[in-house]
Amino acid sequence: MKTAISSRVKVTGFLFLFLCLIFTGMVKEAMADTYIYFDPPDNTLLWQWFLDAPDGDGNVYYEYFNEPLNRIYRSRHFDGTTTYNVAYWGDTYTIKTQCIFDAGGNPIKDVHYHESGRIWKEIFSGGPDPDGNVYIEYFDEPLSRRYLTIHEDGSKIYTVAYWAGVDTQDVSACLTVPVLMFGMSIILNQGTGSAIINRLMLTVYISYGFLTTL
Are 158 and 176 in a shared domain? Predict the structure, then answer.
């Protein structure tokens, strides 16, 4: 009797282990990434890539151009945001222009990059950013610091210089208000970058954003 029970237990145990292995394999198969390729004769080029989990950038889907370089055309974030890479710099993998849409298909912003790959400008086509900005332009430098910021009310901030190696402003942030036709220069504290106004200068707004200090 003891032998029969022991045999049953062993058989049941092996069966359970076998089913677990099968189930685990099925789960792994179900969770594997899915790759779809273009039709012949371009079937060596990847067309779509569905990820079973977000990658390091938070993306779960990629679609590629049908071209020798097989560059990314669009990507979808796990939150539903979709980014279209509408242009690249020449025959490189350096993105030139991106258009970003929310999960509902509404535009958020267009992003342009310098040929160096650094961000050049952001145009908030879907409405101002949380700070009320509709346009931001950056210097082509490793820190990608701001050069020009345009607020939704039309005011502009030109950051003409920075303290070496940091993000705090040096000479001034020239704020121009077209309605008043004059602006204000502010020198920020080097250490903290706090908005300590230690000098005011009237500026004459000429046109196209050119400023002349009085």
Answer: yes
Place of tokens 């020198």: 187
What is the 3 state secondary structure string of 50-69?
ECCCCCCCCEEEEEECCCCC
Say if residue 122 is exposed, middle or buried (CB neighbours under 10 Å; 0-12, 13-18, 19+). Answer: buried
**Residues paired with residue 112 on neighbouring β-strands, in sequence order:** 97, 121
pLDDT tens-digit map of 141-173:
999 999 999 999 999 999 988 888 777 665 444
Question: Domain range holding 46?
Answer: 34-80
Whether the CB-CB separation of 201 and 211 falls below 8 Å is answered with: no
Measure the N-to-C terminal CA separation of the chain; round to a whole number of Å.
Answer: 107
pTM for the whole structure: 0.69
CB 202 within 8 A of CB 177: no
Q: Which position has the token pair 């160096």? A: 116
C-alpha–C-alpha distance, residues 123 and 46, integer Å: 31
User: For residues 131 and 152, what is the distance between their CA atoms, to the nearest angstrom?
Assistant: 9
Residue 55 sits in the same domain as residue 16: no
Decide: 28 and 39 in contact? Cβ < 8 Å.
no
